[in-house]
Amino acid sequence: xxxxxxxxxxxxxxxxxxxxxxxxxxxxxxxxxxxxxxxxxxxxxxxxxxxxxxxxxxxxxxxxxxxxxxxxxxxxxxxxxxxxxxxxxxxxxxxxxxxxxxxxxxxxxxxxxxxxxxxxxxxxxxxxxxxxxxxxxxxxxxxxxxxxxxxxxxxxxxxxxxxxxxxxxxxxxxxxxxxxxxxxxxxxxxxxxxxxxxxxxxxxxxxxxxxxxxxxxxxxxxxxxxxxxxxxxx
Length: 234
Hints:
This protein has helices spanning 5-13, 48-62, 85-101, 113-121, 164-176, 197-212, 221-227; strands at residues 16-20, 27-32, 69-74, 106-111, 127-133, 150-156, 180-186, 232-233. By secondary structure, it is of the alpha/beta class. GO terms for molecular function: hydrolase activity.
């Protein structure tokens, strides 16, 4: 049956793009791509920032049971941060996910601006963990809402777009706020996650699988980063 105009409009306006939906979902992984500090032009799926997250989501899927896990991405209204637009879109996507799949635990995986949005959206009660990849974290980025959160930041030590030092400082402040937080530096890693891409993808897969498990595991990259005095280096 052809999709009605109203159905098509609702789908186009949705903040959640579903890539895989099992019959009985028990968890979900959502990706959030990068963007710009400002800009109200429409975000499109063919923009490079959005395309870069496709192999990241595929890598995460390899470590999961697809009979149980929803895979999706957050669709932004605009390309820019604009004071927090992508974070608002993430909250909308989480609400849509709840209506679709029920109250399932969610891991958010965000890159650059999407990492910042994912960390803001960790305030949502359905978020079990956040993996921020080379996130954009300006000085003073809030951490108080992360009191009970679990989060891992992966950052390339040769990133010239966002600051690895800012990520390490953010993790330190998040720990002070009560979060289970860890920082991991990718040696020779760049912002686009192209250099040493295999390591980026393997690390993503392992951390996402860890964060989806209930409780605090004692093995794996996330667990190791949570207890490290400083940033781990791969």
